Amino acid sequence: MRTNTAPVSATVTYDLGGPFTVDRLALWNEDSVGIGLLDLRYSSDGISFSPLSLGLTPTDNAELADYPAQVFSFAATNARYVRFEMSRCPQGTTQQQPGCAIGEVAFRVADQQQVPEPATL
Asked: 3-state class of 91 per DSSP?
């Protein structure tokens, strides 16, 4: 996700497709216009959001570098929607491009049950 204009903040809401208990987030913070400060909020209905993890400071990745995921852990929470409230974009003082951007995100489902494999015939 990247904004097309030059904001210093942005909001993105992810629909997980159903209720899941999540306890971690892997974030690949974009190198040239990444997030400086991140607040995570969650919801079961997509209307009323509660704090999940506030004041996260993603890594300021060097421009054009091959950057890894940064993992943030939080209390296991049942959610269908996770909202990113991003600010201080772009992070760092050497960034030339305006805007807020996310390279990639992944959520960990805390109570994921193993799916049995079908029996071999």
From this structure: coil
pTM, two decimal places: 0.79
> Span 9-109: which CATH code?
2.60.120.260
The two beta strands, 50-56 and 37-43, are antiparallel
Name residue, tokens 């994921």. 112
The Cα–Cα gap between 32 and 11 comes to 18
Mean pLDDT score of the chain, rounded to an integer? 82
Whether the CB-CB separation of 1 and 102 falls below 8 Å is answered with yes
The domain spans of the chain are 9-109
One-letter amino acid for residue 96 of the chain: Q
Give residues with Cβ within 8 angstroms of 1, minimum separation 6: 10, 12, 101, 102
